[in-house]
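Hey, quick one: can you model this chain's 3D structure?
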Amino acid sequence: MPTTPWYERAAELRIDGRAFIEGERIAARAGTYFDCRSPVDGRTLAQVARCDGLDVDAAVASARAAFDDRRWAGKAPAERKKILVRLADLMLDHRDELALLETLDMGKPIRYSRSVDVPLAQNCIRWYGEAIDKLYDQVAPTAENSLALITREPVGVVAAIIPWNYPMLMAAWKIGPTLAAGNSLVLKPSEKAPLTALRLAELALEAGLPPGVFNVVPGFGDEAGRALGLHMDVDCIAFTGSTRTGKEIVQMAGQSNLKRAWTELGGKSANIVCADCPDLDAAVAAAIGSIYFNQGESCNAPSRLFVETSIKDAFLDKALGMISDFAPGDPLDEATVMGAIVDPIQMKTVLGYIEAGKEEGARLLAGGRAARAESGGLYIEPTLFDGVNASMRIAREEIFGPVLSVLSFTDLDDAVRKANATPYGLAAGIWTADINKAIRTSRALRAGTVHVNQYDNDDITVPFGGYKQSGNGRDKSLHAFDKYTELKTTWIGVS
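Sure thing. Here's the predicted structure for all 495 residues.
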């Protein structure tokens, strides 16, 4: 049995899997639970409340009451700021606990849970708290006999459904702007990784958030998620996850009360490396690091790598020399850089795509197998395919695992056409020393974010979202407030 300090801390954890409604931990009304298992070693971490429509009704009623009596929306922006900043401080105070929950729950290395996920999540909450008392409304340029005020108001009760790959950070992207704007929130975390969302709700209450403003209903998508999507008293639903489920969410919004529906969905991002790349080593490091970070479980991962033919062999030699650095290891070992796949379903999906790549004629250069079976956990080797063409499944479909497909090109315009020949449009990259080529290509790529001579650099100040079937609306930046506020015009006649 491993004996790192993180295992010792894990043994001391007392995890409460009950829902969080009206400021209290409560069992599911039907008395149902599901086992929350760790992909690290297969252990059962907790029994988590399996919420259904009855629990969702209670959570939405709690959120509606909190919104209607203005216990939160009625607070001055400066007061809301203080509480959100306090929540961010508490997240740092509980940094090790939150990081440990995140790693045990979904398998990412503890080094990243602690150094990336917690800091980014708390910074998101802090940033929106700091922003809210610095936003101004508008006065329209009307004639002298009228005064027209354009003001933002909270939309009301917001339902947020978040994925399992970055549970804490994706929760923060919803919590920050939703609460800063004065809304009430019902959050449904993925059943695959619900633990940090539940703990954040407790910390928010400790920070001073009034009961009822922030509720968490763990459960399954076809039960709790569907109930939120169809609920007649939810004013806005924000979803991050698969394109298939996102389409269902939008349909539910239309079938019910035409609630605002915002989606951040899948991706099949293209990363284009030209022969005049200014730093081939940097391009290789970015390509390899970005696809294998978080076990490849990132919607914006550059899973399609287009390399100009004249430099492809040199590129692949360097890439193969780096892959061993990403061998999967024990997520609770601080030396590990690639951890466990979230659950057996995802493990089977990724391995199935690897088999499809081989069957369709792609050349497997590295990886392709399950690993660390003796641990009891779920691990896959970092995998690299060459000789991929655009018609193969591994080049068309989102895998959501540590699998990189390499396609070669001689004509940049053709590479851009192939990069755009996908239903997705979340992110892309271009590597070239020619600024004109970089600008032309970035304009031609149909993606919400285009990286130039880097990949994955990011900040809370810039919006995140996609074109086409990668969703609508934007997370992060001030643009996120557009999703969680209504614009009101107040027209005043002046005599």
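One thing worth noting: DSSP finds 15 helices and 22 strands in the chain.
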